[in-house]
Amino acid sequence: MTTIYAASAGASARYYTGYLTEPDGELPGHWTGRQAAAFGLAGEVSTEALESLLSGRNPMTGQVLGRELLDRVDRHGNVTKAVAGYDATFSAPKSLSVLWALTGDDGLADCHDRAVDAAVAMIEKYGSTTRIRSNGTRLHPDTGGLTAAVFRQSTSRADDPQLHTHVVISAKVQTDDGRWWALDARLLKRHQQTFGYVYQSALRAELTARYGVAFDEIVNGQAEIAGVPVELLHQFSKRAHVIAVEMDQRIADFIVRTGREPTDGEYAAMERETAADTRDHKTGLGVPDLRSRWDREAEGAGYDAIDLVDSVRRAAREHVVEAQTVTVAEVLEELAERRSTWNRMDVLRTLAGAARPQPGHDATSWARALEAGADRVLDACIDLDPIIGGARRRGSDGRSLLIEPVANRATSEQVLAQEERIITFAIDAQLDVPAPAITIADTDLDDGQAAAAAAVAGDDRLVLVVGPAGAGKTRMLAAAVDDLHARRRPVIGVAPTGKAAAVLGREAGVAADTIAKFLRDLDQPSSGATWSDPGPGTTIIVDEAGMVRTADLDRLIDHAQRSQWRLVLVGDPYQLQAVGRGGMFAELCETGRTVELDQLHRFEHPWEATASLHLRAGDSRALATYAEFGRIRPGTFDEHLDAIADEWQTANTAGETLSITSTRNEHVTAINHHIQNSRLLSADLDTGTATQIVGGTVMVGDVVATRHNDRRLRTTTGDSIRNRHRWTITHTSHDGVTVTRLGGHGTITLPTDYVRQHVELAYATTEHGAQGDTADRSITLATNATSGRNLYVGMTRGRTDNTTLVVTETHDLNEAINILEAAITLDRSDLPAVAQRRALAELAAPRPRPEPSNRDLLDQLRTAGARQ
After folding, report:
1. Collapsing DSSP states into helix, strand and coil, what is residue 727?
2. What is the pLDDT of residues 719-740, one digit of tens each?
3. What 3-state class would DSSP assign to 394?
4. Are residues 305 and 426 in the same domain?
5. Do 29 and 73 lie in a common domain?
6. What is the spatial distance between Cα 543 and Cα 859, in angstroms, rounded to a whole number?
7. Where among 380, 406, 424 does a domain terminate?
8. Are 578 and 694 found together in one domain?
């Protein structure tokens, strides 16, 4: 989705009404939306009316709608452009565009239009709210609907057939009191994928109803029409062909320059650059002129319209598939795999991506059927919304005006039952007076570490240890494990990842494994299992507990209760959480008794320790401190790539370890290949030793990571190969690649098949991959995608220096700080259903009324459980 700014209202209006619609055969834009009708707008969109609307004015009278759209300047002098509207674009599958182009059947294009209408109607129904402040309270009311201009186009920039529609939505909306406000576009932005899925699903329904076509497999919400030859899809993708021709030349230049083929990552970067460099304006040829060309091109590929129609009809006859339906239970299972709570948009996306249209439905009725299906799913859910007597509610979703439309509201009985079992266990396990060990050896532990070690080695059934980054959790655990061993008390360590389990085992001196392997052995006992059921009184230490999925924690607790183990959960609720449904460690720390590690040992500079704690708490004072000491650097992405490569070379020469992290995988890939290229230019790597890996090639001296646990492969120190372990390549041959663990923990020759499938460059990694690491220095590449947790993890890996390179348009430090200020407020981690229920209750409750504490709520839960 594209944002349209008020400052360019005139240019934007001319672009949509002129450039997009002037070629012969393109339809003029038309108005849609309830607010457009209220204005009296109907029929064709004029440049003048659209420019007036995008300037924040009534398109009929020119009167300013509410506040004038003006750019804002913040305290740092940075300009925030006034938003005039949004461009939501819907693009048909290539097979439909080809079928329309060669048959000349405008009914096919009309199917696309009807599907767009269905999606836009859903956007208007749920996404036309605003935000207002009333008596100190933020409200989120419905409005009179949207004002939108719809522009359908038929061709791509290369004049290939490509049916797509731009829906230009005004940022101005009106409440029922006649006042004008800014559209709250968060739902539109956050759920644009949902609306795209609905469009594709409605399109399949319309095409099936009118033409009886069949469809290939649905992938990411989209499916091609069965029977349209792949050759034709490629033939009418000339834009891709133009890029390919230019790419051939650039690849040839690359080989001459480097003596090798580009890696997949380098190829992707070159392709992006080539796409930008070869983007041309359209020729301006109309559809009638292009149709004859399209016919010739199809004939050149061996097809004409009759052949194509026959192929599609034959595929429809042979490709008879029973109408695919999904059950409520299947939808709930898929939703619960990814998150603890969800909303209507999540349900609609799941349905639209899974269910094939039923007979008798067109686009409009199928969209209604999806809505009805969502109703059935939500009816089977537990509604977390509080019942607020007398509260005003939105007509669009029936929720209180106090609650944001984007807020999740639903969960399943299974999810809530798991969470409540975990909490009930925690309450019961911490009812007794704490019983720490009194035999912890007098070591160099600080007071907090000593208290935590005593708790870990004590008798409590549940111990929660919270430690910020750099607090010495592993040192504390080693002391506790020594004490348990000395008293012949069994202890086992588990962690969410093989890498974390290996570190726990090596540095704490405890037998350790992944939670997945531990639970699998217990649930499916076999002669080859590593673990059998530990006896009563065994201490199970769970490291990086914040990254444990809720379902796994529930299973672990079930085993602990039946076998009478002690559980020790160690982690930091402010670092990165589980991928998927999680968040229960943070919830237990919020509601239970914790032992806190309150001193930081990692950082050389005291100011950096203090700044890290501020960053952990989301306190912007951290940014001021980092900026004062030169740890925040603005710049473009390419500039930062060069700087990171230079920093890596400097650290490598000095014998220092450098942690390099970024949030997006594509950025990590770009960094890895840039460092590798830099080393090639410096003759640090020998192209004669090149070996194929995932996404390219590696040579002797490259730093790589293994990405698959393999217990059959053992290093010279007896360690198995773990996911995310990092290595330096020391030798390559036809038999495999010899690597040495960074830090000197063993050498192994990895088989060729393993290398090709499970090895990748690892100069840099994501913050998830770096969590738990310690290095001499760290660099974090920060962008608009970086969250507070990402930033905190990245900026706490280094002992002597932690620097963030912020991708900016200018070299203004204030722009970088603004991006980081937004980052520290961004949290993508999953929030448990019990926490979401509490948050909704607190939001909706009258302000003067004191809210029950978390412990009060849990006491109520415990009491209710006792009554049962």
Report:
1. strand
2. 888 888 999 999 999 889 999 9
3. coil
4. no
5. yes
6. 28
7. 380
8. no
Q: What is the DSSP letter of 15?
A: I
Residues 6+ apart with CB under 8 A from 702: 676, 679, 685, 728, 729, 761
DSSP-assigned letters across all residues of 198-211 = HHHHHHHHHHHHHH
Asked whether the beta carbons of 564 and 536 are under 8 A apart, the reply is: yes
Instruction: Identify whether 283 is part of a domain.
Output: yes
In the block, residue with structure tokens 């005006």: 401
Instruction: For residues 569-577, give the mean pLDDT.
Output: 96
Q: How far apart are CA 365 and CA 362, in angstroms?
A: 5
Q: Is 371 exposed, middle or buried (0-12, 13-18, 19+ CB in 10 A)?
A: middle
Q: Are 224 and 216 in contact (CB under 8 A)?
A: yes
Assigned token pair, 132: 């207002």
Quick count: other Cβ atoms within 10 Å of Cβ 379? 10
- Rounded Cα distance between 323 and 205, Å, is 11
Cα–Cα distance, 311 to 327 (Å, whole number): 33
Residues 6+ apart with CB under 8 A from 552: 496, 515, 516, 519
Cα separation, 157 vs 246, whole angstroms: 16
Decide: 737 and 698 in contact? Cβ < 8 Å: yes
Residue 568's contacts (CB-CB under 8 Å, 6 or more residues apart) are 455, 456, 462, 463, 465, 539, 540, 541, 542
Q: Which domain holds residue 722?
A: 606-824
CA distance 88 to 195: 9
Q: Which of 380, 402, 430 is the last residue of a domain?
A: 380
What's the domain count of the chain?
3
Asked whether residue 78 falls in the same domain as residue 224, the answer is yes
Residue 694's domain is classified under what CATH number?
A: 3.40.50
Of the candidates 761, 762, 760, 825, which has an alpha carbon nearest to the alpha carbon of residue 791? 825
What mean pLDDT is reported for the chain?
A: 88
830 located within any domain: no
Q: Which residues contact 160 (CB under 8 A, 6 or more apart)?
A: 97, 236, 237, 238, 239
**Residue 275 in this model has a pLDDT that exceeds 50:** yes
**Strand pairing report for 798-807 and 775-782:** parallel
CA angle (736 as vertex; 733, 741 as ends), nearest 5: 110
In a shared domain, residues 516 and 633: no
pLDDT of 855 over the 60 cut:
no
| Residue matched to tokens 């452009």 | 81
pLDDT tens for 769-819 read 999 999 999 999 999 889 999 999 999 999 999 999 999 988 999 999 999
Residues 220 and 86 in one domain: yes
What is the chain's alpha carbon radius of gyration, rounded to the nearest angstrom? 30
Encoding tokens for residue 705? 């990571």
Q: Name residue 564's amino acid.
A: Q
The two structure tokens encoding residue 232: 């034709």
Residue 262 banded pLDDT, cuts 50, 70, 90: low
Are 255 and 224 in contact, with CB atoms under 8 Å apart?
no
Query: Rounded to 5 degrees, what angle do the CA atoms 217, 218, 224 make?
Result: 70
430 shares a domain with 376: no
Residues 20 and 166 sit within 8 Å (Cβ to Cβ): yes
Whether the pLDDT of residue 475 is over 80: the answer is yes
Q: How sure is the predictor about 239, in pLDDT bands with cuts at 50, 70 and 90?
A: low
User: Which residue, among 766, 763, 779, has the nearest Cα to 726 in the 3D structure?
Assistant: 763
Measured between alpha carbons, how far is 166 from 116 in angstroms, rounded to an integer? 10
Beta bridge partners of 632: 804
Residue located via tokens 């409200």: 139
Q: What are phi and psi of 107, to 5 degrees?
A: -65, -30
> What pTM was computed for the model?
0.84
Residue 540 token pair: 């199970």
How far apart, in whole angstroms, are the C-alpha atoms of residue 761 and residue 702? 7
The pLDDT assigned to 292 comes to 86
Write the single-letter amino acid at 753. D
Q: What is the CATH number of the domain that holds 496?
A: 3.40.50.300
